[in-house]
């Protein structure tokens, strides 16, 4: 009797293995009517398909900051300062930067920012290095144009400085961001320009250089 049970168990395991292999290779078959009514197989396939279809691209926190500072509303500079418990030296969720915008699709927002504001300069109005960097960028006559954020004119300037230090590992101004990545400051920008590498950086970022003298 025990031998019969072991044989039956082995046959059942073998059947399950063959069934799994057939399913994984895409073979189709007709289910018994009693199984069709349960919806077991179809629901399992649906769950697996959903798991793959809902896989999202990771969006760096820097895009949350860019979303906030490139907005048209003056209230954007109060979003971070109004949160007393916020620590800019530690990671912040993208929801905080969304400032109440529900159901914001960050994958699409990242693409929009890369398209509309591929070059963002965090500057200070009185800083000679910021002026030097902005003047150099102006000679390239970029399209889309450079988006300049004058940090010292914002109420959240101290928070922005801490955030940029953590996110870009560059703590001074200016801080030039190209498609979410920091090029560094004025000296870094001048070095790229001197070696004629800066135009290649812009081209790879999808930015058109109008000034032919810099091409």
TrEMBL record:
<keyword id="KW-0732">Signal</keyword>
<dbReference type="InterPro" id="IPR002109">
    <property type="entry name" value="Glutaredoxin"/>
</dbReference>
<dbReference type="InterPro" id="IPR036249">
    <property type="entry name" value="Thioredoxin-like_sf"/>
</dbReference>
<dbReference type="GO" id="GO:0015038">
    <property type="term" value="F:glutathione disulfide oxidoreductase activity"/>
</dbReference>
<dbReference type="InterPro" id="IPR014025">
    <property type="entry name" value="Glutaredoxin_subgr"/>
</dbReference>
<protein>
    <submittedName>
        <fullName>Thioredoxin-like protein</fullName>
    </submittedName>
</protein>
<feature type="domain" description="Glutaredoxin">
    <location>
        <begin position="119"/>
        <end position="181"/>
    </location>
</feature>
<dbReference type="Pfam" id="PF00462">
    <property type="entry name" value="Glutaredoxin"/>
</dbReference>
<feature type="signal peptide">
    <location>
        <begin position="1"/>
        <end position="24"/>
    </location>
</feature>
<dbReference type="GO" id="GO:0034599">
    <property type="term" value="P:cellular response to oxidative stress"/>
</dbReference>
<dbReference type="GO" id="GO:0005737">
    <property type="term" value="C:cytoplasm"/>
</dbReference>
């Amino acid at each position: 009797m025990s031998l019969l049970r072991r044989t039956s168990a082995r046959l059942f395991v073998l059947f399950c293995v063959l069934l799994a292999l057939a399913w994984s290779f895409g073979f189709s078959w007709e289910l018994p009517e009693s199984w069709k009514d349960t919806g077991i197989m179809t629901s399992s396939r649906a769950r697996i398909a959903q798991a793959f279809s809902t896989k999202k691209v990771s969006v760096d926190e820097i895009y949350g900051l860019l979303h906030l500072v490139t907005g048209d509303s003056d209230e954007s500079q109060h979003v971070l300062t109004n949160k007393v418990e916020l620590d800019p030296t530690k990671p912040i969720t993208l929801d905080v930067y969304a400032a109440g915008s529900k159901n914001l699709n960050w994958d699409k927002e990242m693409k929009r920012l890369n398209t509309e504001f591929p070059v963002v300069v965090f500057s200070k109005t009185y800083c000679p290095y910021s002026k030097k960097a902005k003047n150099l960028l102006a000679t390239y006559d970029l399209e889309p144009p450079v988006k300049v954020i004058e940090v010292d004119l914002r109420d959240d300037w101290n928070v922005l400085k801490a955030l940029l230090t953590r996110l870009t590992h560059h703590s001074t101004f200016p801080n030039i961001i190209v498609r979410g990545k920091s090029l560094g400051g004025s000296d870094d920008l001048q070095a790229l320009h001197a070696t004629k590498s800066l135009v290649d950086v812009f081209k790879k970022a999808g930015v058109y250089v109008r000034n032919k003298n810099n091409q």
